[in-house]
Amino acid sequence: MGEQFAETHMRRPVITARAAATFEPVGRSVAAARTFVRDTLQGWGLTDIVDDAVVLTSELVTNAVVHAGTTADVICIRADTGVRVEVADRYPEREVPLQSNGGHHFGNPDREGGRGLLLCAALAGRWGVEYTATHKQVWFQLDFPDRPAGTRAAGPALPSSALPIADARVRVGVVQVDSSGLISAWNDDAQELFGYPPEQVIGKPLTDLAAWPHTPGTGTGVAEALLLSRWEGSYGIRGADGRVAPVYASHLRIRDAEGEPSTVCLLVRERERAVLQSPMRGANVDTADNSDRGQATDAFEVFIGSPAPDDLDGLLQRTVERARDMLDGDAAYLLLATDDETELEVRASTGLPSARQRFARVPVEAGTGRYGSARMPAVHEDLSAVPGAVPLLVNTGMRSVVTVPLKVEGRLTGSLGVAAESPARYSNEEALRLQFAADRIALAVERARLTELERLRRGSLSFLVEASDLLAGTLDRDQTLALMAQMTVPTLASWCAVYTVADQASEPELSYVLHEDEDRIDGLKALLMKIDPPEQVPTGGARSWSGPYDAAHAAALRTSLRSLSLGDSARPSSGPGASLATASAVGGETVVLPLVARNRVIGMLILGKPTDEHFRQENLELAEDLSRRAALALDNARLYSERTAISQSLQRSLLPPEQPEVPGVEVEVIYRAAGEGNEVGGDFYDLFPIRDGAYGFAIGDVCGTGPEAAAVTGLARHALRLLAREGFGGPAVLERLNAAILDEGARSRFLTLLYGELWPQHDGSAVLKVVCAGHPLPLRLRQDGSVEAAAEPQPLLGVMEDLELYEQTVTLDPGDVLLCVTDGVTERREGTRMLGDDGLIDVLTTCTGLTAGAVAARVLRAVERFAAEPPSDDMAILAMRVPEPADS
């Protein structure tokens, strides 16, 4: 027993694979580390332990890059007994919870420090902490789960409640279709499922029964599916009753003893799809035949027989891992073709710096001859003899490489390559093996790519709908710029800048800068301010811009050289850190998208990635769609701002200039125009000197609101001033104004107007001569608190041609107040209640002894408090008070 234990624990595990990556001390590195570990373990086929490994890695990398603030080295090691993951940081002095004799003491599990070790203790089979002079390394090991002998894959034991639901008897229809697509066999379960007896369907095409496709987005037809070696999916079978029954189907292409091909279709009800989707459905049906021929199963055949990962990235990562293992290479990569087949985009790699290569693009036709085209297999025996022949492998140490195309129905869909550090490693024999594997995997990759593309398009549509709603919700230029940047960062890019162009003759102006790390915004903005903006190109599409990269790296180099020349004792306090950080932030791909609206370039949207990162083609296409919507929203905001400025300028010209000081009389005016953005409405007021010792005042209300009423307002105010200063009395002024309004024809409006002339007297009183043309009567507040009307009503203006108006004289004694308002005050409503003349009088009686400003403010407060809703009508309040001797 002791010898067996010693032998078990002394045996060193056999390492079968290794992957490593380094992550910078920024918050997004935690997500990148999770993706690295997940992709690596899925590529190794270790889906059973992926989740635990990702959780533990996330906690340990968080401790390194967030709390310790250093880079994190992550190493994944696959052995014959399990997987070991090591996370190392550059902060060995950081406190680590210790293990005492009584067990682990980690403190509060919610505390940031030590939580990763608490999870290690709970999830890992073994874990530990190791120190060096410069590093601290935390490692954990996850053992492979035990499986019954001979089982390729097995699910965990589940309670009955978690098992798939099916009918009491599961019927599996077996339908055999010959090489011409005609049904040759139809079992009893198929008859029970669809209602057809065998003699009714045998000899008929399956296409007559299949309602294809049942699954939305399926692009493969029934004829194509029957020619594939293996196919699974959903469609519908039209039963004898005319109804379409949704089914889940598994097709297998076989060959009989005479060599004639046919297809066996297994059909179950859609809700019972788990019967055919179980991992065991992929058992190798050709095992006996292979063993008879003495052929070993190829690594890719094992892969094809296994359940493929659900996501495209997982499938591609597993593909490159298996390709590298199959040819005993040091690195492998897989590229997918763009829709127009002009470029290839790196989507998965192993043994290469994936962060630098991911989503990089290379042309399909890189040169003349077969070795310059990705459409043909190629073997490079020594890359040092042809530098740059494979751009992805430059400065990677790889010497030989074999590449093969991935094709579906004759169309190029991708390229698969395996490289080695030694020259002359590969020959045409390896190219044939790799091409055979690529042919086997090409269709699965294309299906997964189309599925991902559909998902991305749906996500893009949702993103654009939300973006359109947000952009349409504002007409403010600055807010539109902010929304443009916030929608792109970090969804589409790591940083963003917006240049705007005022007119064709103007240079682009940097208007907004945003980075996913707020600490980088100031440095990025300063960098962009120092360099020339990109050239304005009205053509659509994203184009590369190297300006930020070149300027940032030149600045970082100068700063570093300056720091070295000054020496340690005189080194600047900031050092090269800020410049290097900015250079890293803009070190990846940078693209320029023109903002074109109404056939005019109004700006440019700049999107950038950090060091060595590239944009996905789908993200660039989405950014182009967003830029078109954003350009129109920005131009609408510009037009709205210009028109608002014009409107406000015109409206301000209709308002009186500065209110004159009237000796011996307090005057207060409060004016509110109804409607958003309106400074002038149908109500107006004016107070102006006529001649020495005499002042004119007016308060009026034009029928209606908005610009039309404001036009009559301007006519009335300017006509009053002109006529009064020509020496006309009050009745003559209003009669001539009435004629001017009627001359406007269809543009004329009814007008109520209270006009008067004011003469301050030497004895402290004031004499007023007023004409009230259809306007609410002015109210006079005496010192004893009594309130009375100060004029009589007369006809309003803009109705009749011949008016006979007269003026009335009012004397305000010291302490008296004259209050003039428009009907926006008296007609203030809440439901059926209205403030009215009586309500206004009640408010005014409480104003005895108040100044003119206090009287106007109290009336306004009473109007606002009368109803919960904001006022919907224009409103003007004019209060004049003759102060008592003590006041002055």
Automatic annotation (TrEMBL):
Keywords: Hydrolase. Pfam families: GAF (PF01590), GAF_3 (PF13492), HATPase_c_2 (PF13581), PAS (PF00989), SpoIIE (PF07228). The keyword Hydrolase applies. This is PAS domain S-box-containing protein. SMART domains: GAF, PAS, PP2C_SIG. Residues 174-204 form the PAS domain. GO terms for biological process: regulation of DNA-templated transcription. It comes from Streptomyces melanosporofaciens. One of its GO terms (molecular function) is phosphatase activity.
